[in-house]
Write a structure and sequence with these properties.
Blueprint lengths: L10 E8 L2 E6 L3 E2 L3 E9 L10 E9 L3 E3 L2 E3 L5 E8 L3 E7 L2 E9 L7 H29 L1
Parallel strand pairs: 1-4, 3-10
Antiparallel strand pairs: 1-2, 4-8, 5-7, 5-9, 6-8, 9-10
Amino acid sequence: MLLLTQVAAQTQVTIVIKDGAVQSMDPSQLYMDTDYVVNVKVVDKSGNPVTGSLVEFVPASGLLTIDGTSSAKTGSDGTASLPLKFTSAGVLSLYVGGAKAKTLNVYYSTFPAGAAIFIVGTLVIIGLALAYTVYKGPIKTLRK
């Protein structure tokens, strides 16, 4: 008997932190409802790997929630790998060794549910208000 299981594809994210500051991040944007493996490489100012440094992702604002491992220590190569998924958009802080290294935005991958209806409804209301204003103002004056 052959048993097949579906494995969700994970997007690899690489962040390099040198001497406490983010040097690079690829890809540069994060989106909600995407499975990530975030690899954070921590090096000192000489470029040597920092072993045992705590890497943490902490929600900073918005409704952001994290599924997965939000903290890990770097190994002998200076890299901490964290499987993450963000279940909503918001602002995320990246801490390395207890110090804030970067603030990241997690974006909606699509409009949130109901956003398109809200936008269209708002445009219809604005259009009706303008039509009423024009009809009651300049057109009414011209009809007299």
